[in-house]
Write a structure and sequence with these properties.
- This protein is mainly beta.
- Helices cover 13% and strands 43% of the residues.
- The chain has a seven-stranded mixed beta sheet with strand order 1-9-2-3-12-11-10. A five-stranded mixed beta sheet has the order 4-7-8-6-5.
- Strand 11 and strand 12 form a beta hairpin.
Length: 176
């Protein structure tokens, strides 16, 4: 990857030709996701476990009356469950449901880092090898001066079939 790609990532306000990415840590790695789906970031706590859910669903939380499932990103990648620490938090995402409405879904991560602005050509294609997560979960790579950030394909990480199983097992999960 060229230095010119790394130069297109900055912390200035996003221009018309730039996209914003939320960066965060999970299992010791730095990831990013488009900020457009992020509704809010909350402190981890008050999680209620739900029986018979996949191992990567840590439970549900109450967000202003809405029941929101929380996916442990590390466990979703086939790794050990996230060890909750002082900086652990839940990123609340707005995702389309199988019915076309918006569903809230939480993602447990080790820590949120920053919001980066990147030009449309700053994302390099995903590698075909060497990733520690399924390649379908990777949208691409953002180059920085000190390395790379894996940009997640949020829709694939939190696939429709996963969201459908959560919706059918928990009534009232669709947001207003």
């Amino acid at each position: 990857m060229s230095r010119s790609s790394a130069a297109r990532i900055d912390n200035e306000p996003a221009g018309e030709d730039q996209h914003q990415y939320l960066t965060f840590h999970s299992s010791g790695e730095l990831f990013a996701m488009p900020i457009a789906r992020v509704r809010e970031i909350i402190e981890f706590g008050n999680l209620t476990p739900v029986p018979l859910m996949p191992d990567f669903i840590r439970g549900v939380i109450n967000i202003r009356g809405a029941v929101v499932p929380v996916v442990d990103l590390s466990a979703r990648f086939g790794r050990a469950a996230t060890q909750v620490g002082r900086r652990s938090c839940v990123i609340i995402l707005e995702m389309p449901s199988t019915s076309g409405e918006i569903t809230l879904l939480g993602v447990l991560v080790d820590a949120v880092s920053a919001v980066l602005n990147a030009g449309p050509d700053a994302i390099e294609p995903r590698p075909d090898f060497g990733a520690h997560i399924p390649s379908d979960f990777i949208e691409g790579m953002l180059a920085r001066e000190d390395g790379f950030i894996i940009v997640l394909a949020v829709e694939r990480v939190l696939a429709l079939e996963l969201r459908a199983s959560v919706e059918t097992s928990q009534p009232g999960m669709v947001a207003d």
